[in-house]
Write a structure and sequence with these properties.
transmembrane, 6 strands, two-stranded antiparallel ribbon, metal ion binding, transmembrane helix, 6 helices, alpha+beta, four-stranded mixed sheet, extended, membrane
Length: about 210
Amino acid sequence: MKGGGAIRSGSGGGGGLMRTRLRLPVVLLSCSLFFLAGFFGSLLFTQDPQGEEELERPLSRERLMEAVWPEMAYGDSGDPAPSLIPYQILSWQPRALYFPQFATSEQCENVVKTAKARLRPSTLALRKGETEETTKGIRTSSGTFLSADEDPTRTLAEVEKKIAKATMIPRSHGEPFNVLRYEIGQKYASHYDAFDPAQYGPQKSQRFFRNISV
């Protein structure tokens, strides 16, 4: 019995020592987990989403130009800062340029709403000997002329300014916009946008033609 008691006593002491040895790694692991949880938690709650968004967001075109191109003194009719209008040369002969996203979707919607109530059947400039009856079917769209002053949204004024910059031709040289609408099946047969005085009679001037098709 005493031997058995000695064995039990020895076994109990060894088990306590083993539990003590096992408890230390568990405590250390728990402390480590709490530390890591607190560390990452503090990062999560102290993070500045707006600052992070600013870091990820690329520089705007205006800010990029400010950094690269310094402003210069300008006259009464000039612009206060450099501007950039992207374009692609489609052809030199004949001359054709493509200006992507020249007008925003919102600007286009404003033009559509402003011009919609004014649309009428499109007309033709008649040559000598032509009549409305003999030219019926050449142009079947509807349209209207709309100046920037007649646009309460001021959209056309902004578009005119951009056209002036892209063409280097002042706004005062322009004419009202010819806003056109082509429904399915409607057309304008092949034609020239210039008016030959020999066919149309004397002309005060020829024009740089610009259309917004809606």
